[in-house]
Amino acid sequence: MSQHRHGSTSGEAGGVPAFPDLPEATIARLPEYLRALHHLAEAGAETVSSEGLAAAAGVNSAKLRKDLSHLGSYGTRGVGYDIALLVDQVEYILGLDKNRAVCVVGVGNLGHALAGYAGFASRGFRVVALFDADRKKVGEVINGMAVRHIDDLARVAAEETLAIGVIATPPTSAQAVADLLVAVGVTSILNFAPCVLSVPPNVDVRKVDLAIELQILSFHEHRKASLTALPGGRHDDQEAVGS
Amino acid sequence: MSQHRHGSTSGEAGGVPAFPDLPEATIARLPEYLRALHHLAEAGAETVSSEGLAAAAGVNSAKLRKDLSHLGSYGTRGVGYDIALLVDQVEYILGLDKNRAVCVVGVGNLGHALAGYAGFASRGFRVVALFDADRKKVGEVINGMAVRHIDDLARVAAEETLAIGVIATPPTSAQAVADLLVAVGVTSILNFAPCVLSVPPNVDVRKVDLAIELQILSFHEHRKASLTALPGGRHDDQEAVGS
DNA sequence: AGGCGCTTGTGAAGGCGTGCACAAATCGCG
DNA sequence: CGCGATTTGTGCACGCCTTCACAAGCGCCT
């Protein structure tokens, strides 16, 4: 079993953080646990059982215990998990104590919303710059931030390390923007454009396609409709729509 | 194919086979394939090989072939897949020929963007109504559509069958909105609020949490940083688990 | 017609993730 | 101090998904 970090709080500069290689599925759930933990903490709870936290996060309790066990033993048998401790630990693992700088490229409908999205700031991210290729949009102020031309990207990146780039451009521009981001040192990209990006292997890309989500729902609608049309339609399955 | 069910001949509209039960992972990729197919079709291609389509969709070719094989044999060995035929087939499977009506609840930053998102209309979805609980927003016109009060939801649902409801409210209101949507017969929900919704088993919920995506990227940033921080030496991810 | 090259469709193997069931550990109380 | 109630941590089995590798099928060229 992996050991606790004895180096006390944060500060990985000195000791090797003994980074556990967590299963990808677990990583994807950690933010959900974190949100539930914050919610519980605000409600005044000190500890929480795996059952309780699992319910708040919408998962199975065994799965939650196994997930948390991957990052060490932070629970007490017979009692549960210390909420404050677990929050710190999960935030550390996710690197949320770094207050990472985010830039948004493409100030259309979606980029506009992202620039003002409160959910980012409240979770340890700072939107520090907005870019667009359209000079008519340059200078426009959104959420107290002026839109800059994409040509200024390198200049901004030189001033402050951009941890994450968000692409909210039309798909035709997305690859070019990705290339630009990579060129200035961004190694994590969140892509809202419906297209495949090709990037160097050390760069992580996550894609969010709103239309795809609707299409998946549409499929299930279609399936449900054709099942109820069939004689003896069974509908005992319960869906656990995941990632 | 060997998996065809010839048992029930209760044909639906026109010789369509009984609904194949596709793996969930396959369903999630079908929209991606569809997008790539449309792209290829616009470029003038008639057919495409699994290799080519896989590259355009950003997946492995073997996976693509297995996915497509689940919905029947629509390829020709030695040639590839007929693009037009495959487009029709995938669109049918996904139920995109139904031109489903979508409503958006919550006209904040994000809801505003969703109301105007062109990607919906271009893929067989019609945003037919916008709702908000804030009477100051009611009447505001977005993308040629007036925002209505949430109390009008039942009235709108009576006029037109709402296939999908999109929740873009603060998390505190999300459950109440979900209950309302379910009450008027909506059986598919796309939830942008960072919270867990509880709904009847026949209702599908998909969740999109933009902050979670950033947090997952943040984790990988953190991991990459701590790996490169290690002096090129030891890099054993093996845990010294005795016994 | 026959052979050759190309591509699909699929059996099989391996890996990953999930959920069960239970041992180990901790607290509270008599 | 010991015992029972409670809850974590985990070994194990199962099922889904991915990937490989290859036989089967198709078109084209000679």
TrEMBL record, chains A, B:
Q: Which residues does the UniProt record annotate as the domain CoA-binding?
A: 95-196
**UniProt GO cellular component terms:** cytoplasm
One Pfam family per UniProt: Put_DNA-bind_N
The cross-references to InterPro entries, in alphabetical order and at most eight, read: CoA-bd, NAD(P)-bd_dom_sf, Rex_actinobacterial-type, Rex_DNA-bd_C_dom, Tscrpt_rep_Rex, WH-like_DNA-bd_sf, WH_DNA-bd_sf
- Cite the entry's keywords alphabetically: Cytoplasm, DNA-binding, NAD, Repressor, Transcription, Transcription regulation
User: What GO MF terms are annotated?
Assistant: DNA binding; DNA-binding transcription factor activity
Q: Where does NAD(+) bind?
A: 106-111
Answer whether the UniProt record assigns the keyword Acetylation to this protein.
no
Q: GO biological process annotations for this chain's record? A: negative regulation of DNA-templated transcription; response to redox state
Cellular compartment(s): Cytoplasm
Q: Where are the transmembrane segments?
A: none
Q: Which Gene3D superfamilies match?
A: NAD(P)-binding Rossmann-like Domain (3.40.50.720), Winged helix-like DNA-binding domain superfamily/Winged helix DNA-binding domain (1.10.10.10)
SUPFAM superfamilies per record: NAD(P)-binding Rossmann-fold domains, Winged helix' DNA-binding domain
Record feature DNA-binding region, as residue ranges: 32-71
The lineage's top-level taxon is Bacteria
Q: What does this protein do?
A: Modulates transcription in response to changes in cellular NADH/NAD(+) redox state.
Note the PANTHER family from the entry. REDOX-SENSING TRANSCRIPTIONAL REPRESSOR REX, REDOX-SENSING TRANSCRIPTIONAL REPRESSOR REX 1
What's this protein's family per the entry?
A: Belongs to the transcriptional regulatory Rex family.
Please give the subunit comment from the record.
Homodimer.
Q: What is the name of the protein in this document?
A: Redox-sensing transcriptional repressor Rex
Species source reads Actinoplanes awajinensis subsp. mycoplanecinus
Taxonomic lineage is: Bacteria, Bacillati, Actinomycetota, Actinomycetes, Micromonosporales
Q: Which gene is transcribed and translated to give this protein?
A: rex
